[in-house]
Each structure stands twice: as structure tokens, then as C-alpha cells.
Amino acid sequence: MVAPSLKLQDLIEEIRGAKTQAQEREVIQKECAHIRASFRDGDPVHRHRQLAKLLYVHMLGYPAHFGQMECLKLIASSRFTDKRVGYLGAMLLLDERHDAHLLITNSIKNDLSQGIQPVQGLALCTLSTMGSAEMCRDLAPEVEKLLLQPSPYVRKKAILTAVHMIRKVPELSSVFLPPCVHLLHERHHGILLGTITLITELCERSPAALRHFRKVVPQLVQILRTLVTTGYSTEHSISGVSDPFLQVQILRLLRILGRNHEESSETMNDLLAQVATNTDTSRNAGNAVLFETVLTIMDIRSAAGLRVLAVNILGRFLLNSDRNIRYVALTSLLRLVQSDHSAVQRHRPTVVDCLQETDASLSRRALELSLALVNSSNVRAMMQELQAFLESCPPDLRADCASGILLAAERFAPTKRWHIDTILHVLTTAGTHVRDDAVANLTQLIGGAQELHAYSVRRLYNALAEDISQQPLVQVAAWCIGEYGDLLLEGNCEEIEPLQVDEEEVLALLEKVLQSHMSLPATRGYALTALMKLSTRLQGDNNRIRQVVSIYRSCLDVELQQRAVEYDTLFRKYDHMRAAILEKMPLVERDGPQADEEAKESKAAAQLSEAAPAPTEPQASQLLDLLDLLDGASGDAQHPPPLDPSPGGALVYLLDLPCAPPPPAPIPDLKVFEREGVQLNLSFIRPPENPALLLITATATNSSEGDVTDFICQAAVPKSLQLQLQAPSGNTVPARGGLPITQLFRILNPNKAPLRLKLRLTYNHFHQSVQEIFEVNNLPVESWQ
């Protein structure tokens, strides 16, 4: 005999009483079989009870899709008990992915026009929960009529449904504009709060609505002033703050209406000052209202004194014991630091104290703000604080802190010596966390400060003698010792204490670097080159250096092996040219024009030509063999045509200075995407040394009034090409022309095939998720031919 179907309460008790998951599944499977049988029999009396049990099963995570059509039958029923369960089932079991949801459109339309308030409420709740764009377009007129119904219960739900419709179909904005002005005069709290939310959605998605509602700014100001002074009603007050939810919504709407509009901003200035000074901050509700006030002051064209007041409020937030409040204060100050730098500077000591927070998110925000506060007047004090933080900061913050210190020092360094000391401190403390260009930047800085060569080489030698684990520090120290080893041995530096160093100690230290298991291949290359350069700067015998170089001729690392073979050949075959080839590196201007660089190179070549002795023709032909040392002895090698026998011609040919190819013509940039102020531009570079490689820099900018968050750019190319995507510089593009996002694409096109790109952009903008997929077929011909 088949067991009878259980009631909902009995089913819940039996499921909760199951001791194992297998028992629970057995109970649910039996009851689902009863529910299916009841649906097949078409029992109209108990259908809503069976569906209620099925909804409970669905809430536990078990399949319940077979009840979708029963929801439609219950909704079409004339009984309220059936409609209640049917609408609940539609909200839980149906969504836009199922075509069945379109079948209830007529039922909802009939229920909205019936005039029965509970039924209208059920239909509106269902429409605002799972209404698709098609349903919203079909039912918008019915919802508009309900906005002006006398019942507050129906109007409140109709307003919330209109908010959902605007989010789904922004084109419906014109339908709901007229009723909103009348609804602002309502005294019912739920209706007024919903109306403010609806107007906010309309203004964010429709420029016409934004212009329309700027006329009601005085009315909104009056509503908020009444809330602040007399209150709305005691039942809506929280911790002594009059209706904070309504205050926050009105402030958010005023922020949208006053943005980039002088007249509206002027109207609300006095009110914002009143809210900012009279709001109680002893409770979290007051802090919420105050923070929303600060955001509004920041976004509109407010008076200068009002902006200073907003910054001071955020400064008080930094002293709050609640970590969440301190976090939002740091985030807001970071947004303000560019426009109100001097006002934010007053709170610099408090910001620096936040670096010692145990919460990782707080200390990261404090670090970003501290770096943004660095300028030429406080760079020394701020660098001391940041360097102290670098020594004790968590490992996940060390890379950001080190990079920030290096960038700030490069931008605001008062002297070159201070700049060098700062970089050395960073390399000593967190050398493994610095950016890849830190080594090149420091070597260039030291090379350009001729008066600090002796000081730098002695500082670096001392640092290297203490620690060889920080690879960037070891690389800079090896380069500096190789270039200025003679100054290290002279010991005539007046900047630091005298230190007597002999040749053997220097060579032993470089050999220690070469033999260390911590040294990277690039570091060993620096050390080997330093040893080679010291062979021309030291006065003693070079046999020790020659032995070390010969050892690495059989190194497993190909780059290091090639370098050792070349240096060994230079010792054996071209020893008379070694001093000229291993001269000190010339000074390279960092950002000078191309013409100036070429002129300096030509001048350096001329000086080398004058200094070099006039070689004979056989010497010139032997010198050419240096270009291909791995081919063995050049006694039987085929030589190119003889050079011009002018003095220094061989050396000039070796350096190849006069024969540098002209720079390629620049490739024009290309704009490939633009939508609501978000723009994506592509710039192209083809390195002369590798014409098959194309470097594309994608730059995303944002000129709109809302931030772009979670920005992701993905690309694809035809199979005949190879694509490598580098990590982007960030994932947020601030509003109104903030710092753009850049991302590098490396495309290898050895066959010079026509280039096509397929891009996919995903991001969030104005509280909406955007995804765009498009092809770029109009790339410049110079980018691939």
C-alpha cells in the first residue's frame, strides 16, 4: 500500500529528523514522487499545498523544475491561496533563462488591473523580482497607473517595481518622469523613500531626466532640512538620528543633481554645511549620514570652505575606533588628495600613524595615501616614515611600498646623494621586492653624478660585503665596482669614514657572488663583467681574473658561457685592445631627444677614434673576429672587405656608431572603442632589433561621471600569430579623466600576415555590468608589414 502524502509541517519534521543524508534523500525522493503524482492527477484543491512542499525541497537544494508549470496554473486561479503560493513559486523557480516566465505576463496584467490590493501586491513583487526586459516593456503602462493609486501599500510596491524596470530597460525613463514630481509631495515614509530611489535611478541612466529633476533641487533641500531640524517621525529615528536611511538617499540624489552644475550646487551648499555640523557622530547612523554628506560635498561644485570642512570630517573619522570608518576615511582622502592636497596634508601625521594598523586593508590604504601626500617640501620626513614602515611591513605590502618609495624619491629628490642613499636603503631592506627597472635607474643615476662616484662605490661595497642575498643590490654593486673600482681602492672619499680595501678583497667578494647559490644568472653576469673591467683598473696581476673567466667557459648557463668565452678570447687574442674596449660607460641622458643622443654618440665615437692608435690592416681584420668569437680561431676565417685605413677606423667599425639605422616612422594610434565616456586606444611599437614583434599598448580612459570598476580586457589573434598579454596596470578607471589603465600586448608575426584583433571588454559602469566583444580589422598597415 502506498504511503499517503505528508503535510508540509510533517515533511519538515521528518527531513529534520533524518540522521544521515541518505535518509534525507530517501524522504525527499518519496515525497517528490507523491508531488508528481498529484500534479499528474490535476488535483485543484491540494495543488497549492503540493507546490508549497516542493518549494521547501527547492530551498534545500534539490531539483524542483517540474513545478514550473504548476506555478502558472496557480497564478491563473481565482483563489487567493492559490495565487499566493503560485507567485511565490514563480519568484523562486522562474527567471529570464526560462521561456516559461513569459507565460505569466497576461496573468500579471490581469491581476494588476483587478483592484484587489493583496493580489496587486503579489503581482508587483513577482514582476520586480524576475521581470525580464520584455515583461517590463509590456507591463510598464499598468505600473505607471498604479503609481497614482490612493492606496499607499500599492503605490510603494509600484515604485519599487518601476525601479526594477528602469534598471532593466532605461528607455522607459520617459514613462515614469511625470508621476515622480507628484510623489515627492507624499508624507508616507515608504513612498517618499522609494520615490527618491526611483529618481536616483532615472538621473543615473537618462541625461534628459537629470536635466528635468534639477528643477526640484530646492524641494529636496527643503525635505532634508526638515529632517535635520524637526525630524520625520520618531518611529523612523535610529540612535537619535532622524530617519538616516531617507537622509542618505536624499544626499545621494543631491550629489548626482549637483555634479557639474553650478546653480544646483549653490542651492545645496548651506544645507550641506548644516548637516555636516549638526549630525551626531557618537552613533554609526550619524557617521553614515556624515560620510554621505562628505561624498556629496566632494562631488558637487561646493565652496572651498565646505571642502575643507569635509576633509576635516574625514580626519576625525581616522581617529574613530571602528576600523570600517577609518577605512572609508582613508579611501575618501585618497580621492581628495589631488584636488585638495593642502587640506589633506593637515592630517598627514594621523595618516602615517595608520600605517601601523594590524588590519592589512587599512595599512594598504594608509600606504597609498601616504605616498600620494609626498611632495618636495616633506619628502625627507615622509621618506623616513615610509622607510621605517618598509622594514616592518607585511610581505604582501613590501613590493608596493618599495616601488612607491622609489617613484617618490625619483620625483622629489632634493639632492642626488639623498636620492642614491634612499634607493640603497630600499635595495638593502627589500631588494627582492623592487621593480625590474630599479637596477637600471640607479646605475644611470650614479653614472650621471660624477662627484658621487667614489661615495657610491664605497657605500655599495660595504653593503655587498654585509649581504649578498638581495639580488638587485648585488647587481648594482657589481656594476659600480666594475666601473669605479679604481676609486674604491684609492680610498680618498671624504664623505664617509676611510676604509682601506685591497685588490684581493675586492676580487674575493666578486668571486663569492659568482659562487653563491643565491645569485641569479643575471647577477653572475654582472659579477663576471665587473671582474673583467677590474682587469683594466687594478694595478696587480690579472692571472686570478683570467682563471675565473676561463672556469665559466664551460658554464651550463648559455649566456654566462658566451660572455666568459668572449672575455677569455679578449685576453688571449686582443689583449692590446682590452683597455679601450673596457673603458667606463659613457653618460646616457634619460629622456633627452633622439637627436641629442645621436650627437653625443657621434662625439664619443670621434673621441675614441682620436684616442685609439692607428692599427694596421691585419689588426683590423683580426678585430672583426671579435664579433663572432664562438666560431673559433680566425686564422682561416674569411674576412670581409678591408676597412678604410683611417686612424681608429677599426674601433669605430666595432662600435658601429656611424652606421646606426634611422629610427622607424611612428605608427599612428587607433581608437577602437567608445561608450558612455569609456574609451580604449591602441598605440603600436615595432622594436628595430626584432621587426617580427609588435608591442601594442591598450589604454583605457574614462571621461564620464562614474568610476569604471572590475575592468578586464582580453584579446585574441589568428592562429598564425602568437599573442602574450601582460598584466594590466589596474582594474579601476576613475571618473572625469582619472588615471588610465594600460596593458601591453606582445604579438609575434614572423610571416607578416595581415593583423586582426578580437577584443572582449568587461567592466562595471553606473552600477551595470557591461560586456563588449568586437573585432578590430582596421589596424595600421605599418603594424604588420
UniProtKB/TrEMBL annotation:
Q: Which organism is it from?
A: Mandrillus leucophaeus (Drill)
Q: Which SUPFAM superfamilies does the record associate with it? A: ARM repeat (SSF48371), Clathrin adaptor appendage domain (SSF49348)
Q: Where is the composition biased (Low complexity)?
A: 604-614
Q: PROSITE patterns per the record?
A: GAE
Q: Where in the numbering of this chain does the GAE domain appear? A: 665-780
Q: How does this chain sit within the bilayer?
A: Peripheral membrane protein
Protein name in the entry = AP-1 complex subunit gamma
Mind telling me which GO cellular component terms the entry cites? AP-1 adaptor complex; synapse
Give the domain of life: Eukaryota
Q: Which GO terms describe its biological process?
A: intracellular protein transport; vesicle-mediated transport
Which protein family is it in? Answer: Belongs to the adaptor complexes large subunit family.
Q: Where in the cell is it found?
A: Cytoplasmic vesicle membrane; Endomembrane system; Golgi apparatus
Keyword Protein transport recorded: yes
